[in-house]
Amino acid sequence: MSAPKPPLFSAWLVGALLLVPATSMGESTLVQQGKAGASLDFRIVIPPIMRVLENSHPQSLAAEASGDWSAQQRLVVVSNMKRGFCVTLRMSTPEVDDWRLKTAQHDVTLTQVSDGYRLCAPRAGRYTLLLDHEFNAANKATTGALRWPVQTDITAL
C-alpha cells in the first residue's frame, strides 16, 4: 500500500477551496467608483384624527331668580384635519324656550342655525372653547333644576 502523494492532494484541496466562493459570485457585482446609484422612496401616511379631550358642563342647572338658567361649557378638541372641523350644538329638551350662546374665541366662527348653533374651526390644531349658554324657561313657573339641555355633535370638514 502506498500513501497518497502530498503534492496531488494539496492541489486538489486548493482547487476545492477556490470553488467555494463561486456560489455567491452571481449576486455580487463590481461597480466603478461614482457610477453606483440607489434610491429610496418613503411615504409616511398620517391618519386623520379628531379627538374630544374634554366636554365639561354641569349635569344639571339650578334656576336663577328669574326662572332661567345659565352655564358655561368647556370643549377641548384636537384635530389634524387640514380644513378643520365644526361643532353643532342642538337643544335636546322642551323646557327651554330661548337659548343664547356666546364665546370669546376669535379663531372660530359661531353661527346660529335653525336647530341651534354651529361653531367651526378653519384649520388643524388644538382648540379650547369656552361657551357661555343662557337658557330661558318655556314656563316661567318652572323653578327646579334643568338637566343639561344641549346635544353636541362634531363633524370633520
Question: Which features would summarize this protein structure in a list?
Answer:
single chain, 157 residues, mainly beta, Immunoglobulin-like, four-stranded antiparallel sheet, 1 helix, 9% helix
CATH uppermost class of one domain = Mainly Beta
- Determine the fraction of residues in helical runs and give it as a percent range: under 10%
Low-confidence stretches: none
Kindly name the structural category.
mainly beta
> Assembly type of the shown chains?
single chain
Count of β-strands: 10
- SSE ordering: HEEEEEEEEEE
End-to-end distance? 95 Å
In the CATH hierarchy, the architecture of one domain is Sandwich
Q: DSSP helix count?
A: 1
Give the biggest sheet.
4 strands, antiparallel
Strand content: 35-45%
Strand order of the largest sheet: 1-3-8-5
Commentary on this structure:
Helix content is 9%, strand content 43%. It is mostly beta strands and 157 residues long. The protein has a domain at 50-156: Immunoglobulin-like (Sandwich), CATH 2.60.40. The strands form 3 sheets. It has a 4-stranded antiparallel beta sheet, with no helix packed on it. A hairpin with a 2-residue loop joins strand 6 (109-113) and strand 7 (116-121). The longest helix has 14 residues, at 6-19. The chain is rod-shaped and about 120 Å long. The model has no long low-confidence stretch (mean pLDDT 82).
Summarize the entry for a quick read.
The chain has one helix and ten strands. With 157 residues, it is mainly beta. It has a domain of 107 residues: Immunoglobulin-like, CATH 2.60.40.
Topology (SSEs and partners):
Elements: H1 6-19, E1 50-56, E2 60-61, E3 69-79, E4 85-91, E5 96-103, E6 109-113, E7 116-121, E8 125-137, E9 146-147, E10 150-156
Antiparallel strand pairs: 1-3, 2-9, 3-8, 4-7, 4-10, 5-8, 6-7
